[in-house]
Amino acid sequence: MRVLVIEDDEEAARYVVKGLAESGHVADHAADGTRGLELALSGPYDVLVVDRMLPKLDGVAIVAALRRSGITIPVLVLSALGRVEDRVEGLKSGADDYLPKPFAFAELLARLEALVRRAKPEAAETRLRVADLELDVVRRTVRRGGAAIDLKPREFRILEYLMRHAGQVVTRTMLLENVWDYQFDPQTNVIDVHMSRLRQKIDGEGDRPLLQTVRGAGYRLRSEA
Amino acid sequence: MSDEPPRRSSLIVRFTVAYAALASLIMAGALGFLYWSTRDAQRRVVDREVKSEMDRLWPALQNRTVSEKVSVLTTWTEAEGHFVVWSLMSRTRERIAGNVPSLPAEIAAESEDFEFPIPAEPGASAQPEYARGRVVQLSSGERLLIARNVTDLKEFGGRIARASIWAFGATLVLAVAAGYGFSRSVARRLDAINRSSEAILAGDLARRIPVGEPGDEFDELAANLNRMLDRLESLMRGMREVADDIAHDMRSPISRLRSRSEVTLMGPPDAGAYRQALEQTVKDADDVLAMLNALLKIALAESGEPRDRFTEVDVAAVVRDTAEVYEPLAEDKGIALEVGAPAPVRLRGEPHLLSQAVANLLDNAVKYVPAGGHVRVSAESDGRRARVVVADDGPGIPESFREKAFDRFSRLEASRSAPGSGLGLSLVRAVVRLHGGTVTLADRSPGLEVAIELPHDARTSHRAAAAADRAAPAAADRATART
User: How do residues B49-80 score in pLDDT, each as one tens digit?
Assistant: First the structure.
C-alpha cells in the first residue's frame, strides 16, 4: 500500500516511514500541513497518517478539507493527546481511526492495513469464509469443515471481526475497541485467554491451525487455504 | 497594583455620597411634609373659625341701621379679643368702622379664605402683620370683612421651616459621617482580606485571612477563603507527593533500561545480544508508558473534566460485560467468578471510566485470589444510590494498609513481585469521586470486599458531598475514600 505520512516531528516521521518500507509498503513524508494537503490531493495514496498538531494547517483541518473536496481516502490521525474527547473530535472531522502517541509500530501497521481493507466495499457481506471456516452473520452459525461450532456471543463477535480482517494483523487494542467497545487496556492480558478459548474451538485436532499469534503485535486469521 | 488606593477611596466616596444623598432625600421629604401639613391644618382651623363667626353675626346684622351694625360689631369684637380683624365698609370701600384702615384693592367685593397683609395704621409699628378671613356684602350694600390675625401662626410656621433646615443640615452632616465611617470599616475589612491575598500571592502560602469575633458575613467570607486556601494547600501538597512518587517510581524502570543499554554496549558487538537488549528495552519503555497513561487517566478523572460527557450508563451492564471479559481468565486460574447484576442500574456517568474502574477491581481480585477461591461481583440500587461490590475470599488487605491502598503507587510488600503499577485502586477512587460517590474497603475474613456507592445523578449529590465535607472534614478519607 502507498502511505502518506504528514508529520512535523522528523524523528517520528522517519520511524514510521522506515517501518512501512521494511514492511514492504511505500511511504511519502510531508513535514507541514499545507504540503501534506497538496500531496494528498494529487498523489495516488491508499491511506494517510496525519499528525494532529502540525505547522500551518492542523491535522483535523486537513481531514476536513479532504472530505469537503469529496476525497474519501482513509485517514488515521495521530495525536499526543490520547484523551477520549480528542478522539471524538478527530473522528468527527472525518478521520477513520485515531491512535494516541506513543504507539507501537505494529499497532499502526495493523490499523493502516485494516483501514485500507475497509476502504474496499466488501464489509457488508453476511456470509464470511476463510479456508474451510464459515460464519453466517445473520443466522449466527459457525462451521469448520462442515461441522457446527458452538460459540458464545462474544466469541462469535471476535471471530467475525477476525474474519472480516482475514490475513491481517489484528491487535489487542483493536479487538478491545471493536469487540468490547473498551478504550483502555486491562492490566492483565485478558484478551489472550479469550483468544486461546476461541482457538480451541475453531482449530480442532487435526485441523490446519487458522488463528495465529503474531508476536509483539496481536493475532491473525490465516487467509490462504 | 498601583491603582489600588484610589479604587479603595473611591468606594468610600461613592458610598458616602450615596448614603448622604439618600438620608437627605428622606429627611427633606419628611420635613417638607411636616411643614406643609402643619400650615394646612392651621389655615383650615382659622377658616372654620372665621366662617362660624360670620354665620353667627350675619342674622344679627340683618335689617339694622348702620350705627346698630357698628354697635353689634363693636360688642362682638370686644368679646373676641385682639385676634379679630374687622372692617365695615361702604359700597365704595370706605371704612365705616373697624380696626383695618381699608381693604387691599386686589381683593374682590366678596371672597372667602384669603390671606392679606394688614394695612398698617398710620404711625403704627413697621412690623408687617397678616390676617386671614373673608369679606361679604350685606343686603344693605355695605361690605363686612371678618378675619383673624395670623401673624403668630405664620411666625410659628417660619420657626418650623427654620428648625427643619437645621435638622436637615444636621442630618446631612451625620449621614456623611456615618456613611464615611461605615464604608471605611467595610473598606478596612476588605483591605485586610486584600492584604492577606497579596501576601499569599507573593508566596507566603501558610498565611491566612484574619477571622474576627462577631462572625458576620465578612468573617464568613474570610473563613470560606481560608478553607479554600487550606484545600488548595492540601491539593498542592498532594501534587507534590504525586510528583515525588512519580519521580521515584519512574526512576527504577528507566535506570534499569539505562544500565542494561550501557552494559550491552560494553560487551562485544553481537547482534543477538543487541536484539535481546532492545526487546527488553521496548518492554521496559512500554511499562513506563503504561504507568504514565494510568497517571494521566487518574489526573483526567480528578480534574472533573469528563463530567461534561456524562451520559446514561447501565452499571449492571458494565459489570456483566466486564465480568465476561475476566470470566475465562478466572476459570483458567480455577477461580469461581459469580455475577449478580440482574436488573438495570442506571446512572449518569462516563461509561469508559466506569468500565475501567470495575475492570481494575476484577483484575485485582483475579490476580490475588488463589486457585479454588471465589470472586463475586454485583450491581444493585437501593433507589437512591447504585452499589457495586467486588468481594473475594483471597488474602485481603491488612487493616493498617487499607487507608493507604488508594494512594498512587502504593503496593503491599507481598505483592511487589506481582505485575502491576499500584495505580489500579487510585484510578478506581478517582473515577468514583468523579461520579460523586464513595469507595470503601472492608474485611471479609478471609477476603476483601470493595464497595462502590454511586449517586444516580452526580450533579445533585456532588453538592451534598461537598457540604458533608465541610461539616466533617476530618472524618473524610479514613479507611473510606470519599468526595
Answer: 888 888 888 888 888 888 888 888 888 888 87
Q: Which of A104, A187, A193 sits opposite B363 (nearest CB)?
A: A187
Domains in chain B, ordered, with CATH?
4-155 (3.30.450), 208-297 (1.10.287.130), 304-481 (3.30.565.10)
Closest CA to A105 of A190, A40, A176, A23: A23
Interface test mutation site (partner A, options B305, B324, B325, max chain A beta carbons within 10 A):
B325
Domain boundaries, given as residue ranges, for chain A: 2-119, 127-221
CB B372 within 8 A of CB B481: no
| Contact state of B355 with A102 under an 8 Å Cβ cutoff | no
Strand (E) positions, B354-456?
374-381, 385-392, 438-443, 448-455
Chain centroid, CA A86 distance in Å:
19
Chain A residue numbers with beta carbons less than 8 Å from the beta carbon of B418 are: none
> What's the sign of the alpha-carbon dihedral B344, B346, B351, B354?
negative
Instruction: Point out the residue among A104, A190, A197 whose CB comes nearest to the CB of B326.
Output: A190
pLDDT of residue B474: 39
CA dihedral sign, ordered B406, B409, B413, B417: positive
Helices B351-368 and B424-434 sit at what angle, rounded to 10 degrees?
Answer: 150
Q: Which residues contact B119 (CB under 8 A, 6 or more apart)?
A: B100, B101, B102, B104
Cβ-proximal residues to A222 (8 Å cutoff; 6+ apart), any chain: A130, A131, A166, A167, A209, A210, A211, A212
The CATH class that applies to domain A127-221 reads: mainly alpha
Of B66, B69, B85, residue with least CA distance to B77? B85
Q: Complex ipTM, two decimals?
A: 0.78
**pLDDT tens track for B89-122:** 887 778 888 887 766 666 666 777 888 888 766 6
Q: Which fold has domain A2-119?
A: Rossmann fold (3.40.50)
Strands (DSSP E) found in chain A: 2-6, 26-30, 47-51, 75-79, 97-100, 127-130, 133-136, 141-144, 147-149, 169-171, 211-214, 218-221
What distance lies between CA A93 and its chain's CA centroid? 19
Here the contacts of A38-42 (C-beta below 8 Å, separation 24 or greater) are: A39/A4, A39/A6, A40/A4, A40/A6, A40/A66, A40/A71, A40/A73, A41/A66, A41/A69, A41/A71
pTM: 0.63
The CA radius of gyration of chain B, in Å to the nearest whole number, is 49
Closest Cβ opposite residue B289 in set A102, A194, A197: A102
| CA A26 and chain centroid, separation | 18
Length of chain B as a residue count: 483
Three cell numbers written together for B107? 381683593
- Give residue-wise pLDDT tens across range B349-392: 988 899 999 999 999 899 889 999 999 999 999 888 899 999 99
Fold identical between A2-119 and A127-221? no
pLDDT digits (tens, 9 = 90+) for B308-350: 888 899 999 999 989 988 998 999 999 999 999 888 999 999 8
What totals of helices (H) and strands (E) does chain B contain, helices first? 10, 13
Q: Which residues of B touch A188 (CB under 8 A)?
A: 329, 363, 366-367, 419
Cβ-based burial of B8 (10 A; exposed 0-12, middle 13-18, buried ≥19):
middle
Query: In this complex, is the C-beta atom of B352 within 8 Å of any C-beta atom belonging to chain A?
Result: yes
Give B37-72 as a DSSP string: HHHHHHHHHHHHHHHHHHHHHHHHHTT--HHHHHHH
Q: Which residues of A touch B306 (CB under 8 A)?
A: 84
Which of chain B's residues have a Cβ under 8 Å away from the Cβ of A154? Answer: 324
Cα of B297 to nearest chain A Cα, Å? 8
Cell 373673608: give the residue.
B134
DSSP class of B6: H
Q: Which of B312, B394, B316 is nearest to B324 (CA)?
A: B316
